[in-house]
Amino acid sequence: MPTLPGKLVAIALAVAGAAGCVYVPSGFAPSATPVAVSDIRVLGHARGKQQYFSLFGLIPFGKPDYDAAIRDAVGKVSGGRTLVNVRSHVTVLFVVVGYLHTLTVEGDVIS
User: Fold this and answer.
1) What would the pLDDT profile of 55-74 be if each residue is shown by its tens digit?
2) pLDDT in tens, 35-54
3) Which long-range contacts (CB under 8 A, 24 or more apart) does 33-37 make?
4) DSSP class of residue 36?
5) Which region, left, alpha or beta, applies to residue 62 given φ > 0 means left and ψ of -120 to 50 means alpha?
6) Which of 9, 76, 98, 104 is 20 to 30 A from 66, comparing alpha carbons?
């Protein structure tokens, strides 16, 4: 007969096996907003994220919001106005009761 610690290990392994992660490249864009070439002054590189959860992968609580992720990235650099050389990807973490979706954008912040 299995002992309590043995049962806990079995349950922990089952939960860990049910969890997983997926990485989905989303795209690339030269700029988040139209900019004149003469106005570009790169202030630094930044990464912004936006997350939402979906229950059983069917009932979303939120939506992917590129604008929020871009604002998050631009807000990390003082004096930043927008992003250029924008790259984005989505990571999905599978958990027992649903999925945690993380939209990540990164690029060069300009003034």
Assistant:
1) 988 898 988 889 999 999 99
2) 667 767 889 999 999 999 99
3) 33/82, 35/82, 35/84, 35/110
4) -
5) left
6) 98
The CA radius of gyration of the chain, in Å to the nearest whole number, is 20
CB 89 within 8 A of CB 104: yes
**Which one-letter amino acid corresponds to residue 102?**
T
Helices then strands, counting H and E runs in the chain, come out as 2, 5
Q: Is the Cα dihedral 58, 60, 66, 72 positive or negative?
A: negative
**Neighbouring-strand partners of residue 110:** 42, 82
Distance from C-alpha of 28 to C-alpha of 45, rounded to nearest angstrom: 15
Task: Report which residue type is found at 94.
Answer: F
Cα–Cα distance between 22 and 43 in angstroms, integer? 32
